[in-house]
Amino acid sequence: MSNPNTGDTVKITTSSETIKGKIMLSTDKNIIIKLDSGYNIGIKKQKIKSIIIEKGYQPKKQKTKKIPIKKDLPTISILHTGGTIASKIDYETGAVIAKFTPEELIGMVPELKDIANIKCKFVANIQSESMRFPHYNLIAKAIEKEIKETKPKGIIITHGTDTLHYTSAALSFILENLSIPIILVGAQRSSDRGSSDSHMNLICATKFIKETDFHGVAICMHNSMNDDKCAILPGTKTRKMHTSRRDAFKPINSEKIALINYDSDKIEMFEKTKPKPKENLKLKLIKEDIKVGILKSHTNIYPENIKHFKNYDGLIIEGTGLGHFQTKSFDKISEIEEKNKKELEKLLKDTIILLSSQCIFGRVNLNVYTPQRELKEIGVMGTEDMTTETAFIKLAWLLSNYKKEEIRKLVTQNLRGEIIKCSNTNSLK
Amino acid sequence: MEKIDSKIGLEVHYQLDVGKLFCNCPSILREENPDFIIKRKLKTSAGELGEIDETALYEFKKQKEFWYETYNDSNCLVELDEEPPHSINEKALDVVLQLCLLLNTQIVDQIQIMRKTVIDGSNTSGFQRTILIGRNGFIETSKGKVKIATICLEEDAARKIQETPSYIIYRLDRLGIPLIEITTHPDIKTPEHGKEVAQLIGMYVKSTGKTRGGIGSIRQDLNISINNKPRIEIKGVQDLRTIPRIIENEIKRQSNLKEIKSEVRKVNIDLTTDYLRPMPGAARMYPETDIPSINITQEKINLIKLPELLTEKAIRLEKDFNLNSEISNLVIKEKLDIISLTKKFSNIEPSLIATTYLLTPKEIKKRFGINIKTKDIEETLSYYNDKKIPKDAIQKILIERTQNKKIDLNKYKTSSSELERDIRKIIQKHKDLTFQAYMGLIMKKYRGKANGQEIAEILKRYIKQI
């Protein structure tokens, strides 16, 4: 029996019939073929008597058209890092994987070439949940290089959505004195389907860079479930708030920066543009061996949970309510929680510990209740109104670039828009 | 005239009443105003092998904005394409497997959910999910075997409510309702045979007891080609009685053409057809990546129980309940639960129960234009079951109940002595009439108030005395 490859046109003879089709996948038990009707069916291998390859698979040559440069349009760069926005069907596994070239991206969103001269660069191809600190540095360096070489009006980073807000926070801290817009764009529906949000998110980000003087790191995603507007969201104050909706990204304790109307091209700005930095761009990278952890507090917690972080440089405890964590006993049952405090004290010798809140919205305050005051006394600090994710990135970045005493001051200082000292009255919606 | 060699095949679609195919929403069609509207646009996307399908491209060229009418209590994020599909509805899959066995098809070992690119906006995702499950079956007809090419399980599209030059309004209630698609080989011999095959397949599908009723719940397409020329697909045949005429008209149309291009056409009211869109190709399909493929094991197939066929059931009902074949078929068609009803109304003969539920409302509607509610039928029959009213009063009470008045049952009931006295009076007043003439006079006065049989008995006694 011949051994066919994916895409080969074959004739498969089983005990009861002969089936013609294209090989899609061969597993241990089954061969999946695509029939002329377009349907895929799996045939049990044990039924198959013979396979004849009628025609070997020949991939169609992709026509790549050179796009002429238009002098009146600004140059905008797109750096590709992976994720749903750049995902395609994988014939081998049948799953959606990120696998295409920057040229294909332009091919899929031809509208872009009428808004700006688009430069595409490949940086990484990674599902966003697998992003690690070295990836943030890699992207930051690619941005620096792109600014030097291409001098674009702005840069779009295509990125998986799961940890898009971690990357936007990381780039916000790493890129000091950034004078152009860096817009992270993702998609909640893969680009291979007609309903994908990827093209609209990309087009709106491109229009925003072209038409405004904004500089800094921001996110551009759908504003609602409608295909009408995209929101520009602050890089350090945004979070993925839904597993699947197009408008999953929401500002936390903050406001949108702008809204872009897809049809009318109207841009509503909600933030005044800050003066551009006078100094040159400087990269303050995150040390690749820095270890920061996140511990989500919960009822019935054990001291072992804290012990686990003994070799870490930093720890964010995502406390309850205003920033609470169990260190006091109230009766015999809760006696074990006294040990939590001892473990924290041990850990604090080498580890910086910050307390954020799992409420997501609102500000942490360690003054209101006695146990929190005691935590503050032993050296735990609150994260103000930062999200846990931004606090996590900020702490890793501070540990990479500053001394311990400086870090203790900088944690609660606003450096990149990550802390707003007056609590936003309108953020919980 | 040269002889026309025609090839005719059929494709039937039946909606299933088992909830939606890829989410847990109910499959109910809504008529009220929607709770909210979501506005979307669609883009063409390449199929699995990188080719954009001709159909998809055609629809893209006339692109519009799509507005989706949504209901909080019967739609979810899956229909809005805001959440990946859930696992397949096992009940729907079981019904299809039953049909695969009934129609003698081979069952695919490993089924794969496919995305069929559709960008007219009728699917929020830009594709319709469809699965090929059964292949190479057959049914026995009066003109021999008709081969069944495929049995597929699909999700139905959203309902088009309104179309304007700039947007189309769809309602999400229908989107995702499981749809069985059965396609025959072009084995249909004559236009009349087409109707027979459609009816026979319908009987098999309905025998599962899981089909939905109502307008649009059954749709038939025809595939017609003549003299080995390209195939034409005709969409949207609603009433299977029109199948023979549509086939005749299409054969006539094609035989007058010099050149035939393969295309999809739609049925007009006068049973002619108009161009709809180009024929879809294989490039239109690519795998649904959000749901793994499913192995249909022999163990699973062994667990599938075959339903009683409706043809068998009709004979059984005729025998068990002493119904004529017209009524027993109607009981099946209207899904009347005759078994529980005969238990509930044990003093009433089953045929009266069936006719009161199935024929009386139609008769009243036709004569008086009044709609009768099932609840009222139930209540009225219970009066008769409890011997509170005579049989002749059933229809009168049904009509009166629609006026929402309190019903005075005594009005319909005349005591025997009162009746007898009055009959005597009438006989004295109108002397020397025939039995029929007396009956006519008395019934005119007492219709619905007294039992005709009782009147006849009293009358017989007095006429004898005279």
- Low-confidence stretches of chain A at least 5 residues in length (pLDDT < 50)? none
User: Sheet bearing the most strands of chain A, described?
Assistant: 8 strands, mixed
Q: Which term fits the overall shape of chain B? A: elongated
The rounded Rg of chain A comes to 26 Å
- The helix/strand class of chain A is alpha/beta
Major pleated sheet of chain B: 11 strands, mixed
* Order of strands across the main sheet of chain A: 9-6-10-12-13-14-17-18
Total number of helices of chain B: 16
Estimate the helix proportion of chain B, in percent. 25-40%
User: Roughly how many Å apart are the termini of chain B?
Assistant: 80 Å
Q: Mean pLDDT of chain A, rounded to whole units? A: 91
SS summary, helix count of chain A:
9
Number of strands of chain B: 17
Give the percentage of residues in beta strands of chain A.
25-35%
DSSP strand count of chain A = 23
Which percent bin holds the helix content of chain A?
10-25%
Please describe what this structure looks like.
The complex is a heterodimer of chains A (429) and B (466). Chain A is of the alpha/beta class and 429 residues long. Helices cover 22% and strands 26% of the residues of chain A. Chain A is built from 9 helices and 23 strands. In chain A, the strands form 6 sheets. Chain A has an 8-stranded mixed sheet, sandwiched between helices. In chain A, β12, α4 (198-211) and β13 form a beta-alpha-beta unit. Chain A starts with 8 loop residues before the first strand and ends in a 19-residue tail after the last helix. Helices cover 36% and strands 22% of the residues of chain B. Chain B has 16 helices and 17 strands. Chain B has helices at 54-61, 90-102, 191-207, 243-255, 298-303, 310-321, 325-333, 338-344, 350-358, 360-368, 374-385, 393-401, 409-412, 416-429, 435-446, 452-465, and strands spanning 6-15, 36-40, 65-70, 106-107, 110-111, 114-117, 127-141, 144-155, 159-163, 167-171, 178-184, 218-226, 232-237, 263-267, 273-278, 285-287, 294-295. In chain B, β12 and β13 (232-237) form a beta hairpin. In chain B, α6 (310-321) crosses α7 (325-333), α7 (325-333) crosses α9 (350-358) and α14 (416-429) packs across α16 (452-465). The radius of gyration of chain B is 29 Å and the shape is elongated. The model of chain B is unreliable at 46-50 (pLDDT under 50). At the A-B interface, β3 and β4 of A face β2, β5, β6, β7 and β16 of B.
